[in-house]
Amino acid sequence: MAGTLAACGSSDGGQESGDSTTVTLVSHDSWAASKDVIAAFEKQSGYKVRVLKDGDAGQAVNKAILTKDNPQGDVLFGVDNTLLSRALDNGLFQPYEAKGSERIKPEYRADQEQHRVTPVDTGDICVNYDKKYFADRDLQPPRSFDDLIKPAYKNLLVTENASSSSPGLGFLLGTAAKYGDDGWEGYWKKLKANGVKVVDGWEQAYNEEFSGSSSGKKAKGDRPLVVSYASSPPAEVLYAEPKPTAAPTGVAAGTCFRQVEYAGLLSNARNTEGGKALLDFLIGKRFQEDMPLNMFVYPVTEGAQVPPEFVKYGPQAKDPETMDPAKIADRRDPWIKSWTSLVLK
After folding, report:
1. Cα separation of 302 and 286, whole Å?
2. Which residues are 223's β-sheet partners?
3. CB under 8 A, 24+ apart: contacts of 97-102
């Protein structure tokens, strides 16, 4: 969601050829890592890291598919469980079982027969609310999907386009998991009638439309409910100066969908050895423990510690909606088509 570049390169079409000392990581815009952590990998491995950010997760995956014969890099990070089958079905990755993968918690593993992707982090897509807005009106914030269609919350929610945005798609899948194949469309009809606003991506929704975020306040956002992450509140605390004693935003715990992000060695990577070394590093203890305060996600490996302030302000959802990856693969595209027809037209 936020952070600084560890290293960066140009956004030209293909990789720089003939440089076996550089390993290129292609990612969505939310990639971030501490400089000293990347420096430790570079010293340990002998490879220099180049990071190429390529938009929202959906955009990054689509571009990687289009350029798979002449990829922009060696490793793609940020494919999540909502988009995984699209990447695998298009032959985006080559098999590699990362060293240390036995430490990955079983519930986050995927593609165990071929090992084309490595789980790196997890988080929850949830509706966030502006605490001040609701306190000023003596109105209880919503707690569940059912609450969002009540008249009290009319014209308050902004979400992302499910066809182009990872959190937008995650929110759609959350409603499908909650209400089932026969019920999710009816739910969205009610949500539309209750004034839900749809924008292209997370940056616009959270930083421009949402009244509760620091950026949204500056942009005079007027929607006090936004589809974001359970880890957005700690970001609001940790980036604020001075730091508040409590997060200005909260999470509607009954609206969460569990997301897992993966990385993989691109099929036509030029520096496969460098890519393998980088994948090993991404699930190592040092990088796993660096992620929470940089990318505001949780580690997926046993034994990785999470900073107490991250747990305090952004606890994982206790009972998030989930969906079998095979069902996502089977139903995602028809659902997106139906959602687009229903909500955007």
Report:
1. 13
2. 210
3. 98/276, 98/279, 98/280, 98/282, 98/283, 99/280, 100/280, 100/283, 100/284, 100/301, 101/283
Number of other CB atoms surrounding residue 308 within 10 Å:
8
CA distance to 208, 232, 243, 310, per residue, from 238 (Å): 20, 10, 7, 9
Q: Which of 296, 205, 278, 307 is nearest to 40 (CA)?
A: 278
pLDDT in tens, 150-203: 999 999 999 999 998 889 999 999 999 999 999 999 999 999 999 999 999 899
Q: Which of 161, 158, 172, 298 is nearest to 234 (CA)?
A: 298
Q: What is the DSSP letter of 244?
A: P
Question: What is the DSSP-derived secondary structure letter of residue 259?
Answer: E
Task: Evaluate whether 49 touches 281 at the Cβ level (below 8 Å).
Answer: no
Dihedral sign for Cα 225, 226, 230, 235, please: negative
| Whole-structure pTM value | 0.86
Rounded to 5°, angle at Cα 280 from 275 and 285 = 140
Cis ω on the peptide bond leading into residue 242 (within 30° of 0)?
yes
The whole-angstrom separation of Cα 192 and Cα 176 is 16
Residue with the two structure tokens 């659902």: 335
